[in-house]
Specification:
The chain is α+β, with helices and mostly antiparallel strands and about 160 residues long. The protein is built from five helices and five strands.
């Protein structure tokens, strides 16, 4: 069993067939905070791209809520010129809201890759719907640190931060 969601996604992706039309493009799966959980391309920009796309997704969600759209569970976000661009779809992985993004170039049928991306992501979500992190981790960043020490370290609750 994978120790974290990134490894769980990577394990599932290895067992699933990635549609050829999707595989040739850059695919990212990120959590709603913009943390990259999976990428099919080794790219030093994955962290930045995930963070930026997370902001775009959250801004779009805020616009949907502001305009009081009745149903927005199946919403997708796209930005393209017909053959180059990106598309994002929502995906719930292990009961956590996430999104998948495909960045495509020279794609003659962007609608087809959006559909294939959603179907592939639905398979991933289905495989991981019951996944939970292990009850015990192998390692911790800090040992024997109290909440008060963390608060002091990061300034939580200090009067200096109050305005």
């Amino acid at each position: 069993m994978a120790e974290n969601l990134q490894d769980a996604i990577a394990d599932i992706v290895k067992s699933l067939t990635i549609p050829t039309r999707i595989e040739k493009h850059h695919v990212l799966i990120s959590n709603r905070d913009g943390v990259c959980l999976y990428s099919n391309k080794a790219n030093e920009l994955n962290i930045s791209m995930s963070a930026l796309l997370g902001g775009v997704w959250q801004a779009s969600q805020a616009l949907i809520e502001l305009n009081q759209f009745k149903s927005h569970n199946e919403v997708k976000l796209g930005f393209d010129d017909g053959e180059n661009g990106f598309c994002m779809v929502r995906i719930d992985i292990a009961k956590r809201p996430c999104y998948a993004c495909i960045v495509f170039e020279k794609e003659m049928a962007p609608g087809a890759i959006r559909t294939q991306l959603k179907l592939w992501c639905d398979k991933i979500a289905d495989e991981l719907k019951l996944w939970q992190p292990p009850a015990h981790r192998n390692g911790y960043l800090f040992k024997d640190v109290t909440d008060e020490e963390i608060d002091r370290l990061f300034g939580f609750g200090s009067k200096e931060c109050l305005s």
